[in-house]
Write a structure and sequence with these properties.
Elements: H1 2-40, E1 59-69, E2 72-82, E3 88-100
Antiparallel strand pairs: 1-2, 2-3
């Protein structure tokens, strides 16, 4: 009984794994073909449309100032972005306590 059970399990496992082995070998040849085609293809990038060079046309400056709030003095560092259309964006980078007044 044990021999019959083990033989049937072995046969079922062989039937289950044979198609997967064939699929792997088929995909290996497909992968090799794709690799050969990609090596032979020229590596040229053609971009149609206008260039987006306007995005980087902005000036960025960093300012530092000392500010007194109550009895404490802080050094604040700001980053100011000047955009081409005349608007500005101000961002506080850091605030460090320098000392007491």
């Amino acid at each position: 009984m044990k021999k019959l059970l083990s033989l049937s399990i072995l046969t079922l496992s062989a039937i289950a794994f044979v198609p997967s082995v064939e699929a792997k070998t088929g995909s290996a040849t497909t992968t090799a073909t794709l690799a050969a085609n990609s090596i032979a293809a020229p590596q040229i990038n053609i971009q149609l449309g206008r260039n987006n060079r306007r995005i980087n046309r902005r000036a960025v400056r960093t300012y530092t100032r000392n500010v007194r709030r109550g009895r404490v003095i802080y050094r604040e560092t700001y980053r100011v972005v000047y955009r081409p259309n005349g608007t500005t964006r101000t961002q506080l980078v850091s605030r460090v306590r320098v000392g007491r007044y």
